[in-house]
Each structure stands twice: as structure tokens, then as C-alpha cells.
Amino acid sequence: MRVLLVDDDPKFRAVVTMSVRHLNWELVQSGSLLEANSALSHSKFDLILLDGLLPDGDSLGWLREYRKFEPKIPVVYISAHLSKGASFNTLVKELEVSLVLQKPISAELMSDKLEALFKADSWGMDLEAMNELVAEYIADLPQTLSDLQVVLNQAQESFSQSNLKEAIRQAHTLRGNAGIFGFIELGVMMGQIEDLLRSISNDGSMNRWLEIERIFVACKFAVNNFLSQSSTGDERAPERRYPHVLLIDEDKSFSKRLRSLLSSEGILVYSFHDTEFAENVIEKTRPDLLILNRQISRYGGDDLLKVLHKSSRHRNFRIVALADGLESDGLESDEPLSASLSICATLNKAKNNIELIEDVKSLLKVGC
Asked: Among 30, 193, 197, 303, which lies 20 to 30 A Cα-Cα from 148?
């Protein structure tokens, strides 16, 4: 089976190559749409693995043109920008993409998805070779983050579209690499930085730069924590090096406050203002704790709880309900709710900063 891989990041291509080696596929690599066109003009392929963001054009537009001439060849679309349902529908229904993979994604999951899609017989991934690639990635990670920090500083201090574009490129590359090398949380945080960079207007909005700085500090903390634990012989998986919390609340002010407080304690917080994508985020990131406002108006909190409660994978998932005022004095458990919707405690938003931090740390340490 001949496969064309189209991605501009050499590290990502190396890991994908390693991920499918056990499938006995013949893999041809292209670093741009121009190179892909050249490869397709000289040879036939049974499958195309296409990255969603390439330096020389629009992958979606390229695929739309390609489908006019080759409507049947399977395509796997790999992208970090699939938040809108319309984009997914366009890929699957209009362009007949066989599989959509969203970055960050681990090498193991990518391998499993491709293997299942094509029902390939294999002996499994070459773990020794994969570990060598991971070790090389980890060794380069501090310098990679340092390079990104320099670019971020340049983009903020002397704002220009070229500086901003380079910062977006580096954040995007880190986003994809972190996920495929198993650093899922780092990939999520880099995705947040990339999205914020893309939303910055020509005035270089200070609020967004402050948020970028906060997330970047959390990234450095996570990486330094992982490297220090690795040096002491800790063999745990990289993505479980530090606790993380999923927070769902429409109150943006409180969400920002809690994120800032917990980040300063080395706790990563994923923050959403509705529950639309919550189940998918839980499945991908496996947070240690869900803090949820049940009264959320869009995609109700109780509906999410019922879905989680019915799933055997999330039956023992720790869930804390947010209380908006003085109706709750502390980490109280509502027994009827605990029995029906798996809520194990209530967190009062009216508490001061120190009390909020201690309550969350207590829940992460001893459970509900």
C-alpha cells in the first residue's frame, strides 16, 4: 500500500512514519502542497495523509480541487482546527474524507485509528524506535520552548504581521508535536496559545498577551516538572506529570480567576463556557477533576452529568458542582445528587482565593 504523507513538520512526519511502519506501508513524504502535487503527478497512491495547515496554501481548498480529478482515493485529514461542526461536515460529506484526526493526538492512537480503518494486519509499533524519537524530542524541548518565548516577546514588543505569523507557526508546530509524542496537556496549552495569537488584532490586545503569558508559564512549569522527575528515574507517562482540572462555567471572570490561582500551584485548568465539547475533552485529556456549574444555560450541565453517569468509563469520575453564593459553606456533598448524578462535593465561588485553592487541592489529593 502506497501512502502519501503531506505535512511541513519533519518531526511529525518522522513519528507518523514510525507509527505506520508496522503496517508495511510504503510511505512517501511531502513537506508542502507543491511537493504533494509533484508526487501525485509521478506516482499513484492508495491513501493520502493530509495536514490541515501547510505553508504554501489552503489544504481544504487543495483537497476540494483534488477531488475533482480523484474522487475515490481515501484521505485522512489531520488538523488542530476542527472546532466548528461545519468544517467536519464539509470534510466528511462533501469531500468524502475517510478519517478526521484532531491534533494533539498520540502516536499510539493514530496508529490504532489507521489500523482499524484499513483493517491492517500487524505486529504492533516498533516501540524501541519510537522511544528513541521521544527521547530526542524531550532533549530538544527546553530549547524549543526557549525559541518560542523569544518569538513571542518579539511579536509583543515590536508588533508586526511577520512576527505574529512566525509565533503562530511555532506554536502550531509545538501543538502537533506535543500530542503525537504523548504530551497531551502541552499540546492543548499550545493550542490555546495558537488560537489566542490568531485572534490578536492589529493593536496587539494586551489582555490576550497576558493570557498567552499565563499559559506559557504553565507550559514551562509542566515541562520543567517532567524533566526534573525524569532525572530522578520517575517512569510515569509524561501526560500525567501534574494534576489538571476541567472547569465549565459561563462566568468568565470566575473562570479566569480560578485558572490563574490554580496555574500558580502547578495545576492545569481547561476552561469552557458551555458543555458542547466537554465529553470529547474528557475522553481525550482524562482530567483529574470536573468542576461544573449545573445551571449553565447552553448545553445544560445536568445533561452532561447524565451522559457521564451512563458511561462505564466515567462511572467513578470525580465531579464537583459550583455554588454561586452563600448557599454552600464549603465542600459539602449533596447525597441525592451524589446518588443520581455522581456529584461528590460542592465548591463555593464566594470563597476567597486561599480557600478556593485549598479546597481544590484537597479534592485532588484525597478525592471526594
From this structure: 30
Per-residue pLDDT of the chain (368 residues; tens, 9 = 90+): 899 999 998 888 888 888 777 778 889 999 999 999 999 999 999 999 999 888 888 888 899 999 998 888 999 998 876 644 446 677 878 888 888 887 777 777 777 778 777 764 444 445 566 667 777 788 788 888 888 988 888 888 777 788 888 899 899 888 888 877 777 778 888 888 988 898 886 555 667 888 888 888 888 877 877 776 655 554 444 444 457 788 888 887 888 788 778 876 767 777 777 776 666 667 666 678 888 888 776 666 777 777 777 766 655 668 888 887 544 444 444 444 444 556 778 888 888 888 888 888 888 876 55
pTM recorded for the entire structure: 0.51
Owning domain of residue 195: 128-231
Whether residues 159 and 248 fall in one domain: no
Phi, psi of 273 (to 5 degrees): -105, 0
Same domain, 136 and 120: no
